[in-house]
Amino acid sequence: MQLYSDFAPRRTRQLLFDLLSLAFVVGWVWLGSAIYALIDDLAQFGAQMEKAGAGFRETMTEVGDNLGGVPLIGSSIRTPFTRASDAGGALETAGASQQELTHQLALTVGIGVALLPILMIAAVWLATRGRFIQRAGRAKAMVRAGVGIDLLALRALSHQKIGTIAKIDPDAAGAWRRGDEAVVRRLARLELEAAGIRLPS
Q1: What 8-state DSSP symbol labels residue 84?
Q2: SS3 (DSSP) at 118
Q3: How many other C-beta atoms can be found within 10 angstroms of the C-beta atom of residue 155?
Q4: CA end-to-end span of the chain
Q5: Where are the beta strands (DSSP E) in 70-178?
Q6: 30: burial class by Cβ within 10 Å (0-12, 13-18, 19+)?
Q7: How do residues 148-189 score in pLDDT, each as one tens digit?
């Protein structure tokens, strides 16, 4: 499998495209991480709520336990503090839930922001490079199979732009039919070069 062209100018463009794609991926990952961190910071409110609720619950429980030992009024005076302790526990639970929801939201949004653009970049890269790999593979297979340069030249006449062929010879088709070796070889080289393969010497 050939990932890059044998020719320096095209290979340079391919490498630049790869680096640019990688830079975009890194940029979107960074943006997703930044958004995740920004949203996740909101969980601090939940942490403070949980801490305050836990402290209030513990204090009310302790006060209720202490007053519960007072003769005659102990059992009746404990009830309001027990209820207050329950309220503190509810606040503590709400704080923990807020943190969990915030973490989930931060993760979902962070991944969502990064993932869609990365998938689009990957799709463009795979489509572009996939076509090149397929074409280069076919051309290499033809060369390995010993396909004559006249067949490669014929493919060039079928696939290449008329203006490009005319630069080789105004009557390139006629030259191919006559078996003009120089023109045929240049046409074959043109076909292989378009596939990123260098014509063997």
Answers
A1: H
A2: helix
A3: 21
A4: 21
A5: none
A6: exposed
A7: 677 788 888 888 888 888 888 888 888 888 888 888 888 888
